[in-house]
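This part of the workshop introduces the protein records we will be handling. An example says more than a description, so a record of this kind follows.
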Amino acid sequence: MNSMADERNSSERAAPARPSAGNPITRSHAAWKGDGGLLFEAGSPDGDRTHQIDGNSKSAPSPVETLLSSLGTCAASDVVEILTKQRTTPSRLEIDVVATRRAEFPRRVMALDVTFTIDGEPLERPKVERAIALSVEKYCTVAASLAGDIALTTILVLNGATGDAVTQPMFSATFPGRDAR
């Protein structure tokens, strides 16, 4: 086992560069807190933006809860940007993500139900539903990175009125070159 100084020096080193052929590269770093639990400090490699993730779900969100939060905030960010460009910025947006997981290991996500609760005037249901669909199908990096066989359903609650559940195609299921790998 390495000494603490070796561990500190290795964690301070920049991650090796990967050739990207013009594709953006995003990096993350996580450090185990070593307290006998499964608590990690995770975030940007420079340590400027971090949060805790707890593999035991005791003192911080679990890795799966973090994944769901990432999906929700990614999609919601797109929806806010799309609606703002249409000059119909929401006054409130909350998102709830519920995952159905396999009972046996690996307990991967099999289905997602995402509820967007949005308030604001003059928001129109068809435009908001289109913004949600564009996010999930085209813009949200997290949704596009999930397996295409995950069933994704969205529900829009607009100004207190709940709409119908909409089954959304996942980007990864419709991406033209996905079988070419």
